[in-house]
Every structure is written in C-alpha cells, then in structure tokens.
Amino acid sequence: MSAARRAYSSTVTSPVHLFLGVAIAVMATAWVGAAGAGTVVAVAVGAVLVLTSILVSTVRVLIGGGRVVLGWGPFAWPRRSVAIESVAEVAAEDLTTAQVFGLGVPWSRRATRMTIRSGPTLLLRLRDGEPIRVSASNPRDAVELVRLPPDRTAPVPTTMTTATEEQTMIEEPSTRRPWFGPKRVGYGIRPQTWQGMALVIGAAVVLVVLVRLLAG
Fold first, then answer.
1. Backbone φ and ψ of 169, nearest 5°
2. Which domains occur in the chain, in start order?
3. Which of 8, 40, 71, 82 is the most exposed place for a label (fewest CB within 10 A)?
4. Cβ 109 vs Cβ 130: under 8 Å
C-alpha cells in the first residue's frame, strides 16, 4: 500500500451535542412511557434518539487515494467522497461559536456545513462553487495533503486509515452527497437528499405503527 493512500484521518466529537442529544432522549423516553405507550416503545424511542445524537455529534475526515471522504458518526456514515481534482480551494479556519451555526460566514445556497464545534475547521471550495466546512483535527495537515501535486508522495502521519476505508475512498463516486446535513441556522440536522427524506418518513411511519399496535 503506497504512503499516499494512507494520508490523513480525523475524528471530532462534540461533547455538547452528545450531552444534549442524550438528555433529549431521556426526557422523550420518560414522556412516552408516562403517556402509556409501553416500555418497549419508550425504550425504542430512547434508543433511536441516542443513536441519532451519536451520529450528529461526530464527524470524520479521511484523505487518501486522491479523495477526501467526509462522514457523520464514528463510522463515517452517511458519507460523501470528493475527488481532490474537484477541489478549487482548500484552507484551515478557526470558527467562532456563532460561525459554527452558519452565522457570520459567507452565505451560499449550495453550502454544506459539517461543523459541530468552534475552533479548527477544514474548508473545501469545489470547482462548481460549493463550499464545504467540516470540523477537523489538525486541518492544516489536511490542507497540505490536498495541495500536493499528483506526482508527489504524501508523508505517512501517525494516524492512518484502514485498508477498508482506503478502498471505500477509491470506489465511492465524488458526486455523492450525505443524506443529512446541518441546518443552515440552529442546532440539529436536516434531510438534504431524497434518501434522507425517505428515511425520516419511514422512521416516523414505523414509530406511529408501533405506538398504535402496543397501545391497542
């Protein structure tokens, strides 16, 4: 395996997002249980909310094999793979708390924001004009790797991706967008593809059916 393929891996978790998500899950579980929906339904609601909080409180950045992979959660799913050739500009930023929520940064209709905490952030501006901001550890290291000419070999840092992650980065299409993305303003995520919308609607239908079956 070449050194260029094992280039950069960053996992950032926001304790604030995680705490708020778990707190909401506990309150929702107690409320559903008190409403008489049943223990199974209450636990199911709590489990879904906890898993969602874990998903939205962690972002991953992987660089290797000529691609930048951005993903939600510890396992970078759902994820988006971007070819380095499609990146027109790359930079490291230090966002304030307001900028994390999209306030005080240049507005763009096509913007993708995966920022979960203030501080070090990686900015990718694609050739089609789309800006992508994602929370990352040591984003300046990522900047140098993305800027490397194709004929140069990237150095091997202390944190490396696995062979499975590298193969995924090579195979995934660069046009794929994450199913969910942060709201333009405020806390939480929103569906930004038809797959994400279908998943939300499907989960809501399943929840309503479970409540009706167990309550009846």
1. -60, -35
2. 8-215 (2.30.29.30)
3. 40
4. no
Q: Whose CA is closest to 58, among 99, 21, 23, 94?
A: 21
Over 60: is that where the pLDDT of 75 sits? Answer: yes
**Residue length, the chain?**
216
* β-strand partners of 80: 70
Q: Could you give phi then psi for residue 159, rounded to 5 degrees?
A: -100, 125
Q: What is the DSSP letter of 65?
A: T
Name the residue type at position 113.
R
Please tell me the distance from the alpha carbon of residue 17 to that of residue 23, in angstroms, as a whole number.
Answer: 10
What is the spatial distance between Cα 144 and Cα 136, in angstroms, rounded to a whole number? 14
More confident position, 193 or 215: 193
Q: Tell the burial category of 107 from Cβ atoms under 10 Å away from its Cβ (0-12, 13-18, 19+).
A: exposed
103-160 tens-digit pLDDT? 888 888 788 889 999 999 999 999 999 999 999 999 999 999 998 655 444 444 444 4
